[in-house]
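Dock iron/sulfur cluster; give full complex structure.
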Amino acid sequence: MTCPFLREAQVKFCHASSVRKLIPLSVAPGARAEEKCSSGAYLTCRVYQSHTMEGPVDGPCPCLGESLMQYCAAAPVAKLVPFSESLLSRCGNDGHRYCELYGSMAHPVAAGDEVDGIAMPAELSYAANHLWLEVGESGQCHAGIDAFLSRAIGNVERIQYVWQQGLHRPAAILTAGGVDWEVVFPNPLLLTGCNLYLRANPARLAAEPYTAGWLFEGCLVEGTTDNLMQGASARAWMGHDVRRIHEAVQRGSGMAADGGLFAVGVLNCLDRESRPALFHEFFSPFASGKRVTE
Ligand code: SF4
Ligand code: SF4
Protein backbone atom coordinates (compact mmCIF):
# COMPACT_ATOMS: atom_id res chain seq x y z
CA MET A 1 0.00 0.00 0.00
CA THR A 2 1.30 3.44 -0.95
CA CYS A 3 1.91 6.09 1.74
CA PRO A 4 -1.12 8.42 1.97
CA PHE A 5 1.25 11.42 1.97
CA LEU A 6 2.72 10.52 -1.41
CA ARG A 7 1.33 12.91 -4.04
CA GLU A 8 1.74 13.21 -7.78
CA ALA A 9 2.65 16.40 -9.59
CA GLN A 10 3.11 17.20 -13.25
CA VAL A 11 6.34 19.17 -13.57
CA LYS A 12 8.03 21.00 -16.40
CA PHE A 13 11.70 21.46 -17.02
CA CYS A 14 14.03 22.96 -19.56
CA HIS A 15 15.97 20.45 -21.68
CA ALA A 16 18.40 23.17 -22.75
CA SER A 17 19.31 24.53 -19.32
CA SER A 18 22.58 23.37 -17.75
CA VAL A 19 20.82 23.21 -14.35
CA ARG A 20 17.65 21.13 -14.45
CA LYS A 21 15.14 23.01 -12.32
CA LEU A 22 11.80 21.29 -11.85
CA ILE A 23 8.64 23.37 -11.46
CA PRO A 24 5.33 21.75 -10.45
CA LEU A 25 2.62 22.91 -12.85
CA SER A 26 0.12 22.99 -10.02
CA VAL A 27 2.14 25.74 -8.30
CA ALA A 28 0.91 28.41 -10.66
CA PRO A 29 -2.39 27.30 -12.18
CA GLY A 30 -3.56 29.64 -14.89
CA ALA A 31 -0.12 31.18 -15.19
CA ARG A 32 1.09 28.72 -17.83
CA ALA A 33 0.06 30.67 -20.89
CA GLU A 34 1.79 33.80 -19.64
CA GLU A 35 5.09 32.09 -18.93
CA LYS A 36 7.89 32.67 -21.31
CA CYS A 37 8.52 28.95 -21.85
CA SER A 38 4.88 28.16 -22.71
CA SER A 39 4.21 31.08 -25.02
CA GLY A 40 5.74 32.65 -28.09
CA ALA A 41 7.93 34.72 -25.74
CA TYR A 42 10.34 31.78 -25.67
CA LEU A 43 11.86 33.27 -28.85
CA THR A 44 13.37 36.00 -26.64
CA CYS A 45 14.95 33.51 -24.20
CA ARG A 46 18.75 33.55 -24.28
CA VAL A 47 18.98 29.87 -23.45
CA TYR A 48 16.70 29.08 -26.41
CA GLN A 49 18.64 31.40 -28.66
CA SER A 50 21.87 29.58 -27.84
CA HIS A 51 20.26 26.40 -29.26
CA THR A 52 19.03 26.03 -32.80
CA MET A 53 15.78 24.15 -32.25
CA GLU A 54 12.77 25.09 -34.37
CA GLY A 55 9.45 25.60 -32.58
CA PRO A 56 5.97 27.04 -33.16
CA VAL A 57 5.86 30.83 -33.26
CA ASP A 58 3.19 31.09 -30.56
CA GLY A 59 4.82 28.55 -28.25
CA PRO A 60 5.46 26.43 -26.36
CA CYS A 61 9.25 26.40 -26.49
CA PRO A 62 10.58 23.16 -28.07
CA CYS A 63 13.04 22.87 -25.15
CA LEU A 64 10.21 22.67 -22.60
CA GLY A 65 9.71 19.18 -21.19
CA GLU A 66 7.02 17.80 -18.89
CA SER A 67 7.11 14.79 -16.64
CA LEU A 68 5.14 13.10 -13.85
CA MET A 69 6.86 13.24 -10.48
CA GLN A 70 5.91 12.43 -6.91
CA TYR A 71 6.47 14.30 -3.68
CA CYS A 72 5.96 13.88 0.05
CA ALA A 73 3.15 16.12 1.31
CA ALA A 74 4.30 15.56 4.92
CA ALA A 75 7.77 17.02 4.36
CA PRO A 76 8.24 20.69 5.33
CA VAL A 77 9.91 21.28 1.96
CA ALA A 78 8.39 19.19 -0.84
CA LYS A 79 11.11 17.15 -2.53
CA LEU A 80 10.19 15.88 -5.96
CA VAL A 81 11.06 12.28 -6.73
CA PRO A 82 10.83 10.59 -10.16
CA PHE A 83 7.87 8.20 -10.31
CA SER A 84 10.08 5.11 -10.63
CA GLU A 85 12.23 6.01 -7.59
CA SER A 86 9.28 6.39 -5.23
CA LEU A 87 8.17 2.87 -6.08
CA LEU A 88 11.58 1.57 -5.04
CA SER A 89 11.60 3.51 -1.76
CA ARG A 90 9.35 2.89 1.24
CA CYS A 91 6.98 5.70 0.09
CA GLY A 92 5.46 3.46 -2.56
CA ASN A 93 4.84 0.34 -0.47
CA ASP A 94 3.89 -0.92 3.01
CA GLY A 95 7.27 0.23 4.34
CA HIS A 96 5.83 3.75 4.71
CA ARG A 97 4.56 2.70 8.14
CA TYR A 98 8.16 2.78 9.32
CA CYS A 99 8.96 6.21 7.93
CA GLU A 100 9.79 8.78 10.59
CA LEU A 101 7.72 11.48 8.87
CA TYR A 102 4.71 9.23 8.40
CA GLY A 103 4.84 8.25 12.06
CA SER A 104 4.92 11.85 13.23
CA MET A 105 2.09 12.96 10.92
CA ALA A 106 -0.24 9.99 10.83
CA HIS A 107 0.09 9.01 14.50
CA PRO A 108 -0.56 5.34 13.76
CA VAL A 109 -1.85 3.38 16.71
CA ALA A 110 1.12 1.35 17.92
CA ALA A 111 -0.79 -1.03 20.13
CA GLY A 112 -3.50 -2.60 18.05
CA ASP A 113 -4.10 -5.11 20.79
CA GLU A 114 -2.92 -6.07 24.28
CA VAL A 115 -2.38 -9.28 26.19
CA ASP A 116 -2.09 -8.93 29.96
CA GLY A 117 -0.96 -5.32 29.61
CA ILE A 118 1.59 -6.04 26.86
CA ALA A 119 0.90 -4.27 23.53
CA MET A 120 0.72 -6.78 20.72
CA PRO A 121 -0.50 -5.61 17.29
CA ALA A 122 -2.59 -8.38 15.78
CA GLU A 123 -1.27 -7.94 12.23
CA LEU A 124 2.31 -8.89 13.17
CA SER A 125 3.96 -12.31 13.44
CA TYR A 126 5.99 -13.15 16.54
CA ALA A 127 9.04 -15.29 17.21
CA ALA A 128 9.01 -17.02 20.58
CA ASN A 129 12.11 -15.07 21.65
CA HIS A 130 10.00 -11.87 21.45
CA LEU A 131 10.91 -10.40 18.11
CA TRP A 132 8.18 -9.43 15.65
CA LEU A 133 8.05 -9.53 11.86
CA GLU A 134 5.79 -7.78 9.37
CA VAL A 135 5.79 -8.88 5.74
CA GLY A 136 4.42 -6.28 3.31
CA GLU A 137 2.53 -7.01 0.09
CA SER A 138 5.72 -6.58 -1.92
CA GLY A 139 7.67 -9.02 0.28
CA GLN A 140 9.49 -6.21 2.07
CA CYS A 141 9.90 -7.08 5.75
CA HIS A 142 10.39 -5.13 8.96
CA ALA A 143 11.35 -6.66 12.30
CA GLY A 144 11.95 -5.46 15.83
CA ILE A 145 11.59 -6.38 19.47
CA ASP A 146 8.14 -6.70 21.01
CA ALA A 147 6.82 -4.72 24.00
CA PHE A 148 7.53 -7.64 26.36
CA LEU A 149 11.26 -7.69 25.55
CA SER A 150 11.35 -3.90 25.46
CA ARG A 151 9.85 -3.74 28.97
CA ALA A 152 12.23 -6.38 30.31
CA ILE A 153 15.31 -4.55 29.01
CA GLY A 154 14.11 -1.09 30.03
CA ASN A 155 15.81 2.11 28.96
CA VAL A 156 18.22 1.34 26.12
CA GLU A 157 21.29 3.59 26.05
CA ARG A 158 22.99 2.33 22.90
CA ILE A 159 22.23 0.22 19.84
CA GLN A 160 24.77 -1.51 17.68
CA TYR A 161 23.84 -3.56 14.63
CA VAL A 162 25.84 -6.73 13.99
CA TRP A 163 25.11 -6.57 10.22
CA GLN A 164 23.43 -3.93 8.12
CA GLN A 165 23.22 -5.79 4.78
CA GLY A 166 23.16 -9.33 3.44
CA LEU A 167 21.63 -12.68 4.25
CA HIS A 168 21.72 -13.14 8.03
CA ARG A 169 19.76 -13.83 11.14
CA PRO A 170 19.49 -10.10 11.95
CA ALA A 171 21.05 -9.20 15.29
CA ALA A 172 21.64 -6.09 17.38
CA ILE A 173 23.38 -5.38 20.66
CA LEU A 174 21.22 -3.33 23.02
CA THR A 175 23.00 -1.71 25.96
CA ALA A 176 20.86 -1.00 29.03
CA GLY A 177 22.15 -0.20 32.52
CA GLY A 178 25.67 -0.70 31.17
CA VAL A 179 24.91 -4.32 30.18
CA ASP A 180 24.96 -5.56 26.57
CA TRP A 181 22.08 -7.78 25.44
CA GLU A 182 22.17 -9.42 22.02
CA VAL A 183 18.77 -9.72 20.37
CA VAL A 184 18.54 -12.00 17.34
CA PHE A 185 15.71 -12.54 14.89
CA PRO A 186 15.80 -16.35 14.74
CA ASN A 187 15.18 -16.78 10.98
CA PRO A 188 17.18 -15.71 7.91
CA LEU A 189 16.35 -12.41 6.23
CA LEU A 190 18.00 -10.66 3.29
CA LEU A 191 18.88 -7.48 5.18
CA THR A 192 18.65 -4.29 3.17
CA GLY A 193 18.95 -1.85 6.05
CA CYS A 194 18.69 -1.15 9.77
CA ASN A 195 17.01 1.68 11.64
CA LEU A 196 20.10 3.85 12.07
CA TYR A 197 18.05 6.75 13.50
CA LEU A 198 17.66 4.68 16.67
CA ARG A 199 21.37 5.04 17.35
CA ALA A 200 20.79 8.76 17.95
CA ASN A 201 17.52 8.25 19.83
CA PRO A 202 17.42 4.72 21.33
CA ALA A 203 14.53 5.70 23.64
CA ARG A 204 12.20 5.20 20.62
CA LEU A 205 12.82 1.47 20.98
CA ALA A 206 10.94 1.38 24.28
CA ALA A 207 8.38 4.09 23.42
CA GLU A 208 7.39 2.78 19.96
CA PRO A 209 8.71 -0.77 19.52
CA TYR A 210 6.29 -1.56 16.68
CA THR A 211 6.64 1.59 14.59
CA ALA A 212 9.50 4.11 14.88
CA GLY A 213 11.44 1.61 17.01
CA TRP A 214 11.75 -1.02 14.26
CA LEU A 215 15.23 -2.52 13.95
CA PHE A 216 15.66 -4.44 10.68
CA GLU A 217 14.43 -4.04 7.09
CA GLY A 218 14.86 -6.68 4.42
CA CYS A 219 13.43 -9.08 1.86
CA LEU A 220 11.68 -12.33 2.49
CA VAL A 221 13.76 -15.47 1.82
CA GLU A 222 13.11 -19.16 2.38
CA GLY A 223 12.66 -19.72 6.11
CA THR A 224 12.02 -16.09 7.13
CA THR A 225 8.57 -16.88 8.50
CA ASP A 226 9.32 -20.34 9.92
CA ASN A 227 7.82 -21.06 13.35
CA LEU A 228 6.40 -17.57 13.79
CA MET A 229 3.13 -17.19 15.64
CA GLN A 230 0.05 -15.17 14.76
CA GLY A 231 -3.48 -14.64 16.03
CA ALA A 232 -4.78 -16.82 18.85
CA SER A 233 -1.61 -18.91 19.20
CA ALA A 234 0.50 -15.75 19.53
CA ARG A 235 -1.86 -14.32 22.16
CA ALA A 236 -1.79 -17.58 24.14
CA TRP A 237 2.01 -17.64 24.00
CA MET A 238 2.27 -14.02 25.19
CA GLY A 239 -0.08 -14.62 28.12
CA HIS A 240 1.89 -17.74 29.02
CA ASP A 241 5.20 -15.84 28.94
CA VAL A 242 3.82 -12.99 31.09
CA ARG A 243 2.88 -15.54 33.75
CA ARG A 244 6.18 -17.38 33.40
CA ILE A 245 8.31 -14.26 33.81
CA HIS A 246 6.37 -13.19 36.91
CA GLU A 247 7.08 -16.57 38.46
CA ALA A 248 10.73 -16.54 37.38
CA VAL A 249 11.33 -13.02 38.74
CA GLN A 250 9.62 -13.76 42.05
CA ARG A 251 11.56 -17.01 42.39
CA GLY A 252 14.88 -15.36 41.60
CA SER A 253 14.53 -12.10 43.52
CA GLY A 254 11.38 -12.05 45.60
CA MET A 255 10.38 -8.87 43.69
CA ALA A 256 6.64 -8.22 43.44
CA ALA A 257 5.06 -7.37 40.11
CA ASP A 258 4.59 -3.66 39.36
CA GLY A 259 0.82 -3.08 39.01
CA GLY A 260 0.29 -6.63 37.76
CA LEU A 261 3.21 -6.50 35.34
CA PHE A 262 6.88 -7.23 35.81
CA ALA A 263 8.98 -4.11 36.42
CA VAL A 264 10.37 -2.05 33.55
CA GLY A 265 14.04 -3.00 33.16
CA VAL A 266 13.53 -6.15 35.22
CA LEU A 267 16.66 -7.75 33.75
CA ASN A 268 18.84 -5.12 35.36
CA CYS A 269 16.97 -5.37 38.68
CA LEU A 270 18.06 -8.97 39.10
CA ASP A 271 21.37 -9.97 40.64
CA ARG A 272 24.24 -10.55 38.21
CA GLU A 273 23.97 -14.35 38.42
CA SER A 274 20.24 -14.48 37.64
CA ARG A 275 20.25 -12.09 34.66
CA PRO A 276 21.82 -14.32 31.97
CA ALA A 277 19.57 -17.24 32.87
CA LEU A 278 16.40 -15.15 32.59
CA PHE A 279 17.54 -13.59 29.31
CA HIS A 280 18.48 -16.96 27.88
CA GLU A 281 15.19 -18.51 28.94
CA PHE A 282 12.99 -15.88 27.26
CA PHE A 283 15.00 -14.00 24.66
CA SER A 284 17.81 -16.09 23.18
CA PRO A 285 17.29 -17.67 19.72
CA PHE A 286 17.06 -20.93 21.66
CA ALA A 287 13.79 -19.66 23.14
CA SER A 288 12.38 -19.39 19.62
CA GLY A 289 11.71 -23.13 19.68
CA LYS A 290 9.28 -22.68 22.54
CA ARG A 291 5.69 -22.31 21.50
CA VAL A 292 2.43 -22.74 23.29
CA THR A 293 0.18 -25.36 21.77
CA GLU A 294 -3.46 -24.30 21.70
S1 SF4 B 1 12.08 29.36 -23.08
FE1 SF4 B 1 12.78 27.36 -23.69
S2 SF4 B 1 14.99 27.44 -23.59
FE2 SF4 B 1 14.22 29.19 -22.43
S3 SF4 B 1 14.10 28.47 -20.32
FE3 SF4 B 1 12.09 28.11 -21.25
S4 SF4 B 1 12.18 26.02 -22.01
FE4 SF4 B 1 14.30 26.66 -21.63
S1 SF4 C 1 8.73 10.33 3.05
FE1 SF4 C 1 7.50 9.16 4.55
S2 SF4 C 1 5.64 10.37 4.88
FE2 SF4 C 1 6.61 11.14 2.99
S3 SF4 C 1 5.63 9.98 1.32
FE3 SF4 C 1 7.48 8.85 1.88
S4 SF4 C 1 6.81 7.34 3.43
FE4 SF4 C 1 5.20 8.91 3.26
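Observed: The pocket of iron/sulfur cluster (ligand 1) is lined by residues 14, 16-17, 36-37, 42, 45, 47-48, 61, 63-64 (CB under 6 Å).
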